[in-house]
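Summary for the steering committee. One of the milestones for this cycle was to obtain a three-dimensional model of the protein with NDP bound, which we needed before selecting residues for the alanine scan. The sequence and ligand used are listed below.
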Amino acid sequence: MGVKLGILGLGTVGTGTVQLLQDLQGRHPLLQEVEICRIGVRSPNKSRPVNLPQEILSGDLSAIVNDPQIDIIVELMGGLEPARTLIMTAIENGKHVVTANKAVISRFGEEIFTAANASGVYVMFEAAVAGGIPVIKTLKQSLSVNKLHSIIGIVNGTTNYILTRMQTEGSELEEVLADAQRLGYAEADPTADIDGLDAGDKIAILASLGFGERINLQDVYCEGIRQITKTDIAYAGKLGFVIKLLAIAKNQTGDKSQLSVRVHPTLVSQTHPLASINGVYNAILVEGEPIGQVMFFGPGAGAGPTGSAVCSDILNLVATIKTNTAQANPLLSCRHKEYCHIAPISQLVTRFYARFLTKDHPGVIGKLGTCFGKYQVSLESVVQTGFQGEMAEIVVVTHDVKEGDFRQSLEEIHTMEAIDSIPSILRVL
Ligand SMILES: NC(=O)C1=CN([C@@H]2O[C@H](COP(=O)(O)OP(=O)(O)OC[C@H]3O[C@@H](n4cnc5c(N)ncnc54)[C@H](OP(=O)(O)O)[C@@H]3O)[C@@H](O)[C@H]2O)C=CC1
Ligand SMILES: N[C@@H](CC=O)C(=O)O
Ligand code: NA
């Protein structure tokens, strides 16, 4: 007997998944067991780039998750509702679930995995983070024998594509965003990509797998790329850096009490392995003991790569169903019980880049230095290269400093007569 799929959503990822399942030559033979029974969409009569019998498509998604014939529900519709309710209903009906929906997993993980464990089914989500890169199973299985120190990733293809093109072409953010949407990388509402929320969902998921406990999404600090300008990209370049949107989970003390989980644009040294990850590509650098450093690289979005991740989960479930064991496989189910304590961003110790527009008065750099000194901010470099109209432009890079102290020094600097504005403040890896 074949394994019957009900797929919810036939957009970019749904199409990539169906295309892979319709072209089985040269792939794992177990995929031949898969039968696409029903597909739920918003507009069943819309023309689609895949050939399917029309009767498979339906606008009644609730009927699919309640269909007793279906073994696996593959949720590829996105958004919070009705996706969450459909996933929960599928689990209550004893169906395994595959989803690409990081927004649902990062917000409702506790509810979903508790229900899945109680129902004896698995919820798989390889496609939810870093598209085609097999990082979820790797963290859950291969790397879980390590004690992790940090996970640092470029996990949003849309913003990496935008930053790369801004850097190489000197384009504006809006011009390249339209291309990322056309290529199917961006979320239905690209705000989630641009404002760092998509990467926030993803690092919450990676951190929970890497550090063995649940993450409360509200504790994840998220800052996107809206404020990044050509000027900062150019200054970063002159100082030997590129700007990347990094998602970071780092254990500051070794005892999990100081886990820092955050997303923000970051100056990355041009010699760092993450600096050369360009376009829609993603990469995740994991450091742990005893493995040391290991980096995963690949396409983070798009139909084919994400379809590959979805089908790898389907393959695992087909193998599980065919093995027919009543025992839960602890490497596939969720083991989390508690929530991690996440340190507030004010406690972060990092280097900073800041750009100041100042009146061209003598002694401004000295006044900046004195104020920084008062708050234990020590400077690695100070550059005054240009003018923006009447204003002198000063760029500083600090040594490691506690974020709270640095912000206090900036508050005082803001009040100085010679300071016009501080157009950008970025962290440095
Ligand atoms: N795009 C990418 O590269 C990646 C996406 N993801 C995730 O995969 C999921 C799907 O993304 P993507 O394929 O890009 O999304 P799309 O917007 O391209 O497709 C969404 C699909 O779901 C259907 N759908 C959406 N809402 C409803 C609803 N309320 N009722 C019925 N059908 C609905 C749509 O139907 P219709 O076609 O009729 O409009 C469409 O087929 C998301 O969770 C996303 O975050 C993960 C990794 C990469
Ligand atoms: N919008 C996301 C798609 C994959 O998760 C991205 O750009 O990475
Ligand atoms: Na993945």
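Key point for the committee: The longest helix spans residues 303-323.
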